[in-house]
Amino acid sequence: MTDAHLTAIHDRHDMISYFDGQSAANIEATPAQRAKHPLLKSFLIEVLGDHIGSDDEFLPQVFQRQGVSLEFVESGLFRVIDPNLGVLGFVERLRPRVVVLYSDLRVDRLRPWVKNLVYGSPELDNVWLSGLTFSVLWNNVVRLTKPDRFTRLVFTHDSIFQMTDDEEMDAETEPEETSPEGPQDEQEGIVERRATSFRLVDRVGEINSKLAQMQGLYSPLHAISQLRFPSPVGPGGHDFYDNGQVTNRSPSFRDHRAHLLFVVQIYERLLNQTEERAWYTINESVQVPGTFNQIAGAPVTIRFQDPGLDPSVFDEWVHATFERKRNKFRLWGNPLRLGPTKIHVYGVDRHLWRPIWMELTEKGCTAIIPKGTCGNTIHRLVTNIQRYLDPGIKAFIGDLSYEHYVEDSARSVSYDPRRE
Amino acid sequence: MNTTWKIPRGASPTTPDVSELVKDPLFQLNAVIWLAQSLPESSSIHPGFHRLGFSVYAIAPPLSLPLDLRLHAQRLDVPLNASVKPDVVLESSTDRRFAFVECKANSFSVQSSSVNQLRTYLLLSGGQAADALGLAPGQVSDSILSLVTAEESRLRLQDTTRETAEALASKGLSPGPFSVMGFETSEEGVFLCIGPQAQAFFGFTDGRYKFLDVASGTDPRPLYFIPYDPDLNMTGEERAFGRRVLFERMLAAVISAVGRAEPPRAVTFALRDLLNDACFGIFNKWENDSSRRHMFSITRNFLRALEKSTRISPSPFGLESDMWSVTLADEDQKERVLDRITRFTAESVSKEIGAVTLSDYPLSQD
Asked: How far is the CA of B233 from the CAs of A68, B24, B25, B153, B178, in angstroms?
């Protein structure tokens, strides 16, 4: 993709046709050709703000604050121009709260670019697809795909809080992300902590018949970090990552975009449902306005598998999260220690800069989300706890399971891969 | 107890006397709110009221008796309070039953001045509940006064309440039903002890309900919805703990607002809003002037301590009357302010700010 090609695109139809052509060419390309023309990657990004759904001025302002220009193409579609890299691709508003960046820049350059963009802005966040969310999406893959189609799942669990002293010294900054194109080989040397990261490629029916049984035997298999929706229009499919990256390995961009729309609809409904249920606020009584305070909201509860975290892991989790400015959970707080494995934190999501109140124990986490704190804070928390602490967690909002909310969000979304 | 835990910056293990903790009305109030929250079966908190269909209808609503009843009581020489504010009103929305919950540190005798309030509650929870709540008579099918105290005080408080109710009845007044519940602790956790009246009203099948699982050597306090209430008869330790929570919440509110700000701009905070956010909105409902002044005063002192800890010159902070501001000239200054205020811990301030006249406090620097 060159600047000239991208600059020549004047509307959404042009963009879809262009990427469709690229996708078809890529699927037939030899490995050498593909090295020159990387696959199309989409990054799903949540945008926070009251105006995102209603106008085309707000989004360019948000990106401009990070030094990135968005050039208007048509309503809800922008060309992305980085001052150093030139035209990078396009940003499209898929839903009021979620945009997507399309680009075929090499992933080793694009991923850090997106990471810097999101980390630098309290108005942007990744779309966080937890293992619990993926487990519901997997059920959709099973329902929508012929059982003899091949799919790919990646499981990633890394107990980064089971550290030796030497490792702790090296952990002042965040560990590097795993390769987006697949899990990395283990580093040389002996890994002292539990680290599971592997790829499973098999037929949908075969995996479906075994997965629950395997998860019962080995809990890291709950930590799905990547899932392929096989394409209904050709070989390959669409690889969804837990941080919102989606790689198009199908011959059709239209099909790719339809899958993005499907998952984004689920995610946005999930966000709305989460906030509707979890936001704690004081409502004034309808009967006597201005007089009565009524608490509305429900706690978010995350329970670890029995017997819970080892005290040393709990300690390291607390230490690494609240002693380090750059921490995996992106939280700030002064922990109030109430016991060997119990703390209270009246803290802040330091990415979105919103308050979150939490009790952390070796058995789990209870969080109170004051009104205004984005639902994404919860989904990032669930994703990270599953990935770094316990892959087999159970999560709840109020007395209903997290999966219930995901299933409920997915149930009412129509699936139409032909839609543009 | 494991003594090898790392103590994070600004944190110290609390060491409450658990048997004293359950006497504290602030603990009791927060426990009652948690008992009415929606939680999964596997939670360490067991929300008995919620599972029996009750939710929080109102927190500290100011309620008054009908004027005719007050005049009638006056003629009978029965002293009452003009109004009361039960700590919590619980509601079963399916069958419109209401419980007026009042938390008590201890029992008291029928000679105590607290009996005026008790009489008012007893009359209110009778036939006056709908009027007091501003509902049509048919919208309240049943109501009860539920006193909550420590288990060791439960029977004495029950006797006092029964005697008071009998005295009202002997004068021709109509006290409503009442119950007294008591919190107690054991090695297994925190329990709510429930008398027959409360069992019948709420539907508890047993007289002892486990509210909270507590690990050995661990402070049983759950997260507090209401961290501080100067009107409650809090113990000194609970007062310090509540202040710490209050200040940490205010600090989180300040950090959140500064973090989201786009310089150049001044971020302003109304002290009232800071307090309301930290107290779940009930600050606006406190009518006691001295309590409000106390809260404003400790908030100002907290903010001064926060300003002082940052050591930024010239100071970007401004405190005028009931408004506090942080001026962020540019991104560098925003980062500097954020860096300093995120290093601040309210631990020492919460211990030292007790008397409302103090104005300046030394802080530990990390």
From this structure: 56, 7, 7, 15, 22
CA distance B145 to chain A (A): 18
Instruction: Indicate the burial class of B157 (C-beta count within 10 angstroms; 0-12, 13-18, 19 or more).
Output: buried
The amino acid at A410:
A
Distance CA B25, CA B235 (A): 9
Q: Which residue has the higher pLDDT, B248 or A5?
A: B248
Residue A400 pairs with which residues in a beta bridge?
Answer: A397
Among all residues of chain B, which has the CA nearest to that of A356? B252
**Is residue B61 reached through a cis peptide bond, with omega within 30 degrees of 0 on the bond before it?**
no
> What does the block give as tokens for A295?
């608490």
CB A69, CB A76: distance < 8 Å: no
Q: How far apart are CA A42 and CA A243, in angstroms?
A: 11
Which residue of chain A is at minimal alpha-carbon distance from B2? A340
pLDDT tens per residue across span A76-85? 999 999 999 9
Residues B261 and B329: their CA atoms lie apart, in Å, by 11
Using CA atoms, how far residue B138 sits from B55, B127, B134, B135, in Å, is 19, 11, 12, 8
Chain B residue numbers touching A313 (CB-CB < 8 A): none
- Cα gap B54→B89, rounded to integer Å: 10
B277-307: buried (b, 16+ CB within 10 Å) or exposed (e) per residue?
bbbbbbbbbbeeeeebebbbbbbbbbbbbbb
Contact A373, A355 (CB under 8 A): yes
Of residues B6 and A232, more confidently modeled:
A232
Residue B187 CB neighbours (<10 A): 6
> Tokens 């490995």 belong to which residue?
A31
Angle at B259 (CA atoms; ends A159, A365), nearest 5 degrees: 35
| Confidence band for A295, pLDDT divided at 50, 70 and 90 | confident
Is pLDDT of A418 > 90? no
Round to whole Å and give the CA distance between A125 and A352. 8
Assess whether the previous peptide bond of B264 is cis (omega < 30° from 0): yes
Bridge partners (DSSP) listed for residue A43: A101, A245
Q: For chain B, how long is the longest CA-to-CA vector?
A: 74
Contact A367, A357 (CB under 8 A): yes
Give chain B's length.
366
d(CA A46, CA A34): 30
- In the predicted model, what is the mean pLDDT of chain A? 86
Residue A185 — pLDDT band, cuts 50, 70, 90? very low
Alpha helix positions (H), A94-203: 107-119, 131-144, 165-170
Crossing angle for the helix pair A253-278 and A131-144, nearest 10 degrees?
130
- List helix spans (H) across A8-130: 12-28, 31-36, 58-64, 107-119
Size of interface A-B (CB pairs under 8 A): 181
Tell me the C-alpha distance between B57 and B129, whole Å.
13
Distance between CA atoms of B249 and B238, rounded to whole angstroms?
A: 16
Q: Give B55's contacts (C-beta < 8 A, 6+ positions apart).
A: B36, B49, B90, B91, B93
Q: Tally Cβ neighbours within 10 Å of residue B63.
A: 24
Looking at beta carbons, which residues of chain A come within 8 Å of B215?
Answer: 339-342, 361-362
- Looking up tokens 């609240």, which residue turns up? A322
For strand A394-397 and strand A400-401, is the pairing parallel, antiparallel, or unpaired?
A: antiparallel
| pTM assigned to the model | 0.87
Using CA coordinates, name the residue in chain B closest to A65: B262
Q: What is the DSSP letter of B173?
A: -
Report the alpha-carbon distance of residue B271 to residue B283 in Å, rounded: 11
Question: Which ipTM value was assigned to this complex?
Answer: 0.88
Residue that the structure tokens 């009638």 belong to: B72
Residues of A in contact with B280 (CB under 8 A): 280, 282, 293, 295
Q: How far apart are CA A404 and CA A267, in angstroms?
A: 13
The answer to whether residues B108 and B141 touch, using CB atoms and an 8 Å cutoff, is: no
